[in-house]
Write the structure tokens for this entry.
Amino acid sequence: MVKFLLNKPIAVTMTFIAILVLGIVSVTKIPVSLMPNIAIPEITVQISNSNSSARELENSVVRNIRQQLLQVSHLKDIQSETRDGLSVLRLNFNYGTDIDYAFVEVNEKIDRSMSSLPREMQRPKVIKASASDIPVFYLNLTLKNKQSNDQTNSKTANELYPVSQEFVELSRFSANVICKRLEQLPEVATVDMSGLAKTEILIMPNLDKLDALGVSLEQLAEQISKNNIRLGNLSIQDGQYLYNVRFASTLQNKRDIENVYFKIKNRLFQIKDIATVIDHPQKQKGMVLSNGLNAITLAVIKQSDVQMNALKKSLNQLVSHFEEDYPDIDFDISRDQTKLLDYSMSNLGQGLLWGALLSFLVMFFFLRDFKSPFLVGIIIPLSLVVTLLFFHLIGLSINIISLSGLILGVGMMIDNSIIVIDNITQHYERNCSKGLKSSMGLNIDASVSPNDNAFDINQEVSNVSEAKHQTQRIQYLFSACITGTNEVIRPMLSSVLTTCAVFIPLIFLKGISGALFYDQAIAITIGLFASLIVSITILPVYYLLLYKKGKGFGQSKLLSKLNVINYELAYEKGFRFTMRHQGVIWTMVILMLLGAFGIYQTLPKSKLPALEKDEMLIKIDWNEQIHVEENRLRTEAFVHQVLRFTKQHTCLIGEQQFMLDKTSNCNAAEAIIYIKANNAFMLDSIKLIAKQFFQTNSKQATCQFDDAENIFNIIFSEDEPPLVAHFKATDDFGQFYPKFLEQVHQQLSTKLNQTLAPIAWQEHTILKVSAEKLLLYDLSFNSLYHKMKSLFNENEIFLITDNNDFVPVILGGKPRLINDIIQEATIRNTAGEFIPVRELLNQNTGYDLKTIIAGKEGEFYPIVLDPGSKKPE
């Protein structure tokens, strides 16, 4: 085969060019990502019911769904965390489970349990965990020249309109225009949104007029609902034609509600005669702040087979068009994942480049020849191009893991080239030596050392016959390329197979580790075989072409001057010294082994090397029953303290509206702050200021520092504590459970001699209705319930569909404090008497766990234990 290739140099060159073209084209089509697209065996189920407490939600909803999900195939573990209005169930599966099939099965179980859930509750959301679901960018939209988006100066926790109408319009525009245009990019899979402000229609009745007419709030809500009728369509046949008749009888906007007629004592009234109808922003349960302004944030998620740089380029171009078309909106990109990718790829690229350069220098000084490193400089890039071509063919992506495999393989690729070059050179020198002795009439000694000086041989041959020598030299070179290459094919193949035998078993590792090392093992295997094929096919051809012209093989005069070290002599002296002083050498080896073992014990150990980071997430829990506006005031006060150290910051306050984010399960008293510092050293200063701020201003608050979300946090998560004990009460203690749990917690802390984390309790107000007084005053529970819902602005009558939005219609009034409502409100009974609400209710306070955690065994309380810690003296 080698002889055939040497006789067809033009065909080899054309093949070489074709492979280069195919490889370059393949490189542009290979997806580039930070990590391989690993199927994470995890599914998250989010259950939302805003009107339920944590205990009620756990007992009436979550427990039933958890029991259904326990029947899902290949389920490894399940755990639920339930808070007021929200519960998150995390299902972990055995690695290798078909997560798409598990996703379908989980949805089937949830559909089966829907009949046992409250009718007004939304269907739980099912989110499939995937490395490709992590947003590559966050695009924040704010209004320009608006101080805090036109908010009023009075920022109180009871403010009715926390955002301006302009921001509501921005929310609609973002959802209907900006989001759609982003999703039209071929590189974008979907766009997730949060921070949207929606509207609602509030009906505020004149209670004096209602009392004069003898109409209750329940009757008014019923009259409005009767006018919102959906009759559907009728198909009417008229001769040979068929007509579709539609009935327009639904309420679509504020004006339709104001013009609703109802009859009282033979008189017709309209809603606008006895109530004020306003269209205003809904009370926010959460918000997003970007650099201190109300913002809408759009999480951009890329297609799994798309290069991140292509997405970045398309997004930047589209944002530039946005800035030109909509000058009143400020567009800000944050949490750019491509920076981490660029940083990682740059480091790997530098490692690859420096490795190749050092290899060339080593060859240059040892072979003392310009042409041999040049040959390696051709073979290595060609081997990489062939490797990337196979990447494209088998569907492998360019990521940190696969590139690390290529870097490991580069040194072995150079080994293959050096072996072929060195063996051809030795055969060529032997052939020249034999040819010289034969031409001078000497006996041919087959045992001539390959290290004979080629310069002296070539110089004497040139005196015999220059033309004849040139012909013979080419023949010797041609024969050396054939013999030298064929001679090392089997040893090189054995070497490649031996190396691959070390890495190929990594493919069969179980779990996420096996999925990660798969790319590395495949990259090394492909790289080595590509290098082997190139070294035994293309390298001999170009070796012949390079050395065919010239006066022969050998180093130049310049390189001969660099031969200041006699490597053979140095090696011989070192070998003799080692053999003569074996005791000293063995003592040094043992001491070095002991020293290495000691150093290993003291070295810090981690899953990944420390990366220089300039961004982080600060998770704050104020541990108080505060409104989202109060949360905003406190969060802004904290951000103001660290503002001089930050380049960019985004605050996620309260509940978020992301559909695919399984971690955004905050309540109104929690906040997540993303901070991009001026440099990596500023992060420590921000952490120190944060600890001092909370110790001074809010000692009950908790603050947690995490890395900004990326693929490393998901795959190499270190959030799991070393040891967690699950405490489960065998008896039902009912209302005494909190006291019992506190006692057990103190006893464990004493017996284990450790300071355990305090239990997070949540205080709540209990309104207990007196059934005897309801009967005494001739009142029904439903009438009192609807009255209280209206007073608290929670009495939703129906929903209006506005394009893709749902606008709730609320029957209520001006917001007031709970105590004022209970003390001042009255309700009318069937006899027309006004009964104070305070006479019907008993107000008490209680407390329960802020977060209720449950698993396969049911509800439990986790206690984190640190075996190495003790209570301070």
Notes: The longest helix spans residues 400-439. The CA atoms of residues 219 and 528 lie 81 Å apart. The chain has a mean pLDDT of 79. The first strand starts at residue 42 and ends at 48.
